[in-house]
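Working notes for the structural subgroup meeting. M.R. asked for a predicted model of this chain before we commit to crystallization trials. I am recording the input and output together here so anyone reviewing the notebook later can reproduce the run.

Input as submitted:
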Amino acid sequence: MTQAGESTTKVHYICQTYVEQKPGRGGQAGMKIGKQFQYSTAAEAQSRAEREAQSEDCAGADAYAISEDPDSGEVGSPSFLVRLGNVPEFDDF
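Returned structure, recorded in token form:
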């Protein structure tokens, strides 16, 4: 049981893959999110990112942690565990 005033932060560990997007009319290719997986530990997310990055159809993969305040629903910025291959800049995240 938590006491009043205590904040309970939940941490989510995510593996996210990226695939190359074909150039559109403007002729500019880009990246888009391929798959997302959620894990209970950082090691599981990182291991999956390493495996996914070796896949032929995967341009790159991230494993990261984000914290969430369940009371307010606010989610913090990602804390990257590993970034493999061709991944977007953090500002594009």
